[in-house]
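Quick check before the chapter quiz. The format below is the same one you will see on the exam, so make sure you can read both the input and the output lines.
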Amino acid sequence: MISTIAQRGFAALGAVVVALFAIMMALTFLQVLNRYALGFQLFWTEEVIRLLLVWVVLLATPISLFRRDEIVVDLLDLRSRGLMRAKGAIAVGASIAFCAVLAWWGYAFALRGLPAESPTLGISRVWFYAPIPIGAALSIIALLCRGERREPAEELV
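Here is the expected output.
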């Protein structure tokens, strides 16, 4: 049941990321069109694109972790299935610890940005910093909810 909820939740998050990315690309096209074809600049698009870029990257990270799509750099060539599992558990534990620290300090950083205002958009700077703790917390959930890795048979030889 938890696996089904996690799969649906991360699928919904994926849809949000795709929508944010599409908006970001449309605004980038609009900005380029206005600046070079029409000769005037929309003052707010650059800041919105930057804001959306931060949100897209930090919301896509837990999706990648949940789907096990992260890039693996394997320095230890272990042949034993038990040692490989231990190495995987240590890597997941270290990742969870890193994300917990990132979520904690990201939250503190976001709170410091609460009273500050964006110069162009006039919104609180917390919207630029909020994806840090949100993405880190969702990454912890992704790491805890993802299933056991299924290795292809030829990798275990």
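If your answer matched, good. The chain has one domain: 2-156.
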